[in-house]
Amino acid sequence: MKIPKNLLFSEDHVWVLPKQRNIARIGITEFILQESDEIEKINIYVEEDTEIEAGDIIGEIETSDGTVEIVSPISGRVLKLNQDVIDNPETIIEDPYKEGWLMEIETSDSLESFSLLPYKEYKKTIEEKEEEEEEEI
């Protein structure tokens, strides 16, 4: 699993890419989907120009193994939804960090004000989760 170093991450496995001042792109990490063979459907509960709060459930991904909730890692106004991914959900498995983004959000707060992890901390978190899963087997 290759994790881009330029992203920030939530504990709910949503990545955040700072784009330009106060605008960020978000998507689902590869880790949360690694057990799934295919994505059947993406349901996004918000529309463009909607205000959301960090911690809001903004959608879900239906996979061959069940449903994964998408929890917003930041607060702000939804600027753009990636309709290509909604129409072709397999894009998230093929390219989760580039073409597989879900939405762009404009925030009035700096990204530092949200509970986001830098690359090294997130990588450590998922390595610990993988170790726990191996111990359970």
Give a short synopsis of this structure.
The chain is α+β, with helices and mostly antiparallel strands and 137 residues long. The protein contains four helices and nine strands, in the order βββαβββββααβα. 23% of the residues lie in helices and 34% in strands.
Structure report:
It is a single chain. This protein is globular. The model has no long low-confidence stretch (mean pLDDT 91). The two termini are 21 Å apart. The protein has 137 residues and is of the alpha+beta class. The protein is built from four helices and nine strands. The protein has a single domain, classed as RNA polymerase II/Efflux pump adaptor protein, barrel-sandwich hybrid domain (OB fold (Dihydrolipoamide Acetyltransferase, E2P), Beta Barrel). The protein has a six-stranded antiparallel β-sheet with strand order 1-2-3-9-8-5.
Main attributes?
137 residues, 9 strands, globular, OB fold (Dihydrolipoamide Acetyltransferase, E2P), 3-stranded antiparallel beta sheet, alpha+beta, 6-stranded antiparallel beta sheet
| Beta-strand segment tally | 9
> What's the CATH class label?
Mainly Beta
How many DSSP helices?
Answer: 4
The name of the CATH architecture is: Beta Barrel
The strand order across the widest sheet is 1-2-3-9-8-5
CATH topology: OB fold (Dihydrolipoamide Acetyltransferase, E2P)
Give the overall average pLDDT: 91
CATH superfamily: RNA polymerase II/Efflux pump adaptor protein, barrel-sandwich hybrid domain
The count of domains is 1
Distance between the termini: 21 Å
* Broad structural category: alpha+beta
Oligomer: single chain
| Secondary-structure element order, N to C | EEEHEEEEEHHEH
Strand content is 25-35%
Low-confidence stretches: none
Gyration radius, rounded = 14 Å
Using the alpha-carbon principal axes, give the shape. Answer: globular
Strand count, sense and barrel status of the largest sheet are: 6 strands, antiparallel
Percent helix, as a range, is: 10-25%
